[in-house]
Amino acid sequence: MLARSPFLEVVGTARDGREALDIVEQLDPDVVTCDLIMPELDGVGFVREQMQRRPVPIIIMSIANETAEAAMTALDAGAIDFVQKPTALASEKIFEVSSELIEKVKAAGQIQLNRITTTPAPPAAKSSDPASKIAGSHSVDLVVIGISTGGPQALKRLIPQFPADFPVPILMVMHMPVGYTEMYATKLNELSQLEVKEAAEGDEIKPGRVILAAAGRHLTVKRDSSGKVVTHLDAKPFNTLHKPSVDVLFQSAAEGYGNRLLGVVMTGMGSDGRQGAAWIKAQGGIVFTEAESSCVVYGMPSTVVEAGLSDKSVALEDMARAIREVV
Asked: Is 302 a catalytic residue?
C-alpha cells in the first residue's frame, strides 16, 4: 500500500519487533508502521524500546477487537497514531484503508521529534485553584473539543487538569477507529477527577461530565422531552470525511448554546473543525486553537487560524488554565 504512493519510499521491512529495532538503527527511517501481534518482541515492546533508543514517529496498524488494549498501551508508550486493519475475514478490504494509511504516514513524516511525548498526565487541578473560583460568573455553558493525530496523549495531559468542581460539561470528538473509544474513555476516566465516558444515546450533558464521541457515529446535542440537554448519536450526515466529525458536533453545539459555547481545536491532520469553528463564531461563541509549538500535527488548528476564526492560540501545557479562565 505504501509503495503505491509517489511520496513515500519503503526502505525496509521486519518480521518482528526485535528485527525492527536493528533495521531502524541501520536505515534511520522517517516513519515506522507497526503491527501489535508479532513474535519475539510484540508491537508494544518495540514502541517502548524504540522510543528509549531514539524517538521516531510510529503508526500502529492493528485489528481493533483483538488488540484494543495493546493499542492504547502503545500510544501511551509513544506511538502517534493508528489505523484499523481489516480482520482476516475481511482481508479483501485491506486496500480500503490504503488512503488513510498513506495520508497518516505522510503527516507523520513532518512531525518534529520533540513533539512526540510519553510524559505521564499531570496531577489534577485542585478546586482551590484561582481559575476554578470563577464558576459563579461564567458565561460559557459548554466546552467542545476536536482533536485527531496526537490526541490520545494530549487529552491525557489536558483532561486530568480540570478539578472535580469544573462548572461546565465537556464534549469531545477524537478521530479513532471503531472499537477504541470506549476503552480510551475508561482509561481517561481513571486519570481524571471529572467523569469521562463514551457517548451513549440520551446521556445528560451536565457539569462534572466529559463525553467522548463514540467512533462510527456523529455526536450532537438536543433537548429531551423533560427539557434536559442530552446527547444524540447519528450516522447522518453521510458525506463527512470523519465519523464522528468535529464539524458536526461544533455546529450542533453552536445551534444549541449560541454565544455560551467555547470550541477548542487541537492537534490533528486535515481541516475537520474549521467549518464548525465558523458556526461557533457566527453564533458569538469563542474558539481556541492549540499552538503549533505543542501540536504533534499542526493541521486542524492551522486551518482555523488561517481562516481568522481563532480567538486565542494556546500551547497544550497552558490549555487547561486558559479554558478554566474563560469559563
From this structure: no
